[in-house]
Write a structure and sequence with these properties.
Rossmann fold, 280 residues
Length: 280
């Protein structure tokens, strides 16, 4: 009899390959959305030209690119090689020479202690299997009095898109049981949770602000077509529900958004929490 593995089973959105395969579609669907929170984090960090900035779980660069444009010396890391490849293309498009990229696990950064002025993770660290390790690493690499920004989502019920997805699934497949466990991204969500996690990691003067972001859907029909490829969990959900019911769910989703928008483009909202902490 073989022993059961003691390794924790990873969710689809905690595996590098899944994110690598969808870098382009993720950028198209979510870059503008997450950039709102990245810009606010940059503003609160007050990054100066020449400062060394580390962006962990950078994705396609919603934080690292504007930080470099402000004159910072940026290292952008992600565990998904596909995300880094797409970011490299964007760096070349902007002809930026003050930003480097590395494929790296945010829970075990290959970076010496106390080497950066600023560290950040914008809706990235929230997917880590070990959030505490990821948070501690963001502090470890900072110089004394270095600043850190971590962005997570607000309470799940404030994410309108997932509310409409739930309604669409319920109407299209009333016999299908949606997953009941807490989504990976919601393990760290909300003002209090973020404040506590950053404080536990050793940050001083932790301050958390909440802001509402807007996701503009110009065509609900086109948006749904790419929705299946927007994240690894959506691919899993598609495979479980099947093509016929997925198409019906798409029809309901589209109808709901068109009703909300009265026939035109639709704006969906979600709250994000921005935590700022200072290294001892």
């Amino acid at each position: 009899m073989s022993e059961e593995s003691s390794e924790p089973q990873l969710a689809p959105d905690q595996v590098p390959q899944g994110w690598s395969e969808l870098a382009d579609v993720y950028e198209r669907m979510f870059q503008t959305f997450t950039s709102q929170f990245a810009r606010e984090a940059l503003k609160q960090l007050d990054i100066q030209a020449g400062e060394r900035v580390l962006d962990v779980a950078t994705g396609t660069g919603s934080f690292s690119l504007p930080a470099a444009m402000q004159g910072a010396d940026v290292l952008a890391t992600d565990f998904a090689a596909g995300m880094i490849a797409r970011l490299r293309e964007r760096i070349d498009e902007h002809a930026l020479e003050n930003i480097r990229t590395e494929v790296m696990d945010g829970q075990a950064l290959e970076i010496a202690d106390g080497t950066f002025d600023v560290s950040a993770s914008v809706v990235g660290l929230i997917f880590f299997p070990d959030i505490e390790k990821g948070m501690t690493e963001l502090r470890r690499v900072l110089k004394p009095a270095g600043r850190c920004a971590v962005v997570c989502w607000g309470e799940p019920e404030t994410f309108e898109m997932f509310g409409y997805l739930g309604k669409a699934m319920q109407q299209a497949a009333p016999d299908f049981e949606m997953p009941q466990q807490t989504p990976v991204w919601a393990r760290l969500a909300g003002h209090e949770s973020l404040h506590d996690e950053m404080s536990r990691a050793g940050f001083n003067d932790v301050k958390v602000t909440t802001m509402q972001g807007e996701l503009v859907v110009t065509s609900p029909e086109d948006y749904w077509k790419e929705f299946i490829s927007s994240s690894p969990p959506m691919k899993i959900l598609y495979n479980k529900i099947g093509e016929e019911r997925w198409q019906r769910a798409g029809e309901v989703f589209t109808e709901l958004l068109l009703e909300k928008s009265q026939g035109g483009s639709c704006t969906l909202t979600a709250e994000a929490c921005i935590g700022i902490g200072v290294a001892p």
